[in-house]
């Protein structure tokens, strides 16, 4: 079996992905580095180095999977979020850069040392664990309905040495026993079941239950906002991720339920993405 050099493998995989990915070169780099188990600098410093036969055939198998549409994060089993490594699998949403805006929004608030924070629909645990890592003194609780997600979040909790984070299984607020929080965050499912975006790209490989909500995508957002009134401490706030075109409806819903200081924040792409509201 003949093998390619690093530079040849990179050029080959990039061209294989040109028709199926928005980021063919980046995808090729990530898969190649995963196969050779080296840091990124290796691609440039060692571009003439020859792949081993086992690496060549491993790369060919992964390139074939990517060409079938499988997300890069599922192939490598990891994704970075808030500069931390997270294990990822098909049982949850793949953490997205948009959601880092939610973490940033919470960190921008002046909050006490003993802040009690709740993350609903935690998935990989990306939001809850990133915040717990920034503020080890906070008491963080994360909930997910899927027991596979809970298992994955617990695996990430252990890998990040954040064992004090409380991870529970259940539907939204259901596993709580009347606890109240200074902060409630969530990136719930919010896509309209009819949205054609669901037939394209990585979302085809992610669980529908993490993406889609009834009532044009609003059902879970409304439930979280409405029930949140029982679970927020006076002066506590909620920060929710939502679709780029859902900010006005979410703003009005918060206002109708007597939340105050309602504010929408844009993601890095300039889209309305997070709405924050305070419970008086
Ligand atoms: N922002 C994601 C997407 O459009 C959806 C995330 C979600 O439903 N919570 O792919």
UniProtKB/TrEMBL annotation:
Keywords: Methyltransferase, S-adenosyl-L-methionine, Transferase. Substrate binds at residues 187-190. The keyword Methyltransferase applies. Residues 8-77 form the Release factor glutamine methyltransferase N-terminal domain. PROSITE patterns: N6_MTASE. Methylates the class 1 translation termination release factors RF1/PrfA and RF2/PrfB on the glutamine residue of the universally conserved GGQ motif. Residues 106-193 form the Methyltransferase small domain. Belongs to the protein N5-glutamine methyltransferase family. PrmC subfamily. This is Release factor glutamine methyltransferase. It comes from Pseudoalteromonas xiamenensis. GO terms for molecular function: nucleic acid binding; peptide chain release factor N(5)-glutamine methyltransferase activity. It catalyses: L-glutaminyl-[peptide chain release factor] + S-adenosyl-L-methionine = N(5)-methyl-L-glutaminyl-[peptide chain release factor] + S-adenosyl-L-homocysteine + H(+). PANTHER family: HEMK METHYLTRANSFERASE (PTHR18895), MTRF1L RELEASE FACTOR GLUTAMINE METHYLTRANSFERASE (PTHR18895:SF74). It is an enzyme of class 2 (transferase). S-adenosyl-L-methionine binds at residues 121-125, 144, 172, 187. The lineage of its organism: Bacteria, Pseudomonadati, Pseudomonadota, Gammaproteobacteria, Alteromonadales. InterPro entries: DNA_methylase_N6_adenine_CS (IPR002052), HemK-like (IPR004556), N5-glutamine_MTase (IPR050320), PrmC_N (IPR040758), RF_methyltr_PrmC (IPR019874), SAM-dependent_MTases_sf (IPR029063), Small_mtfrase_dom (IPR007848). Its EC number is 2.1.1.297. GO terms for biological process: methylation.
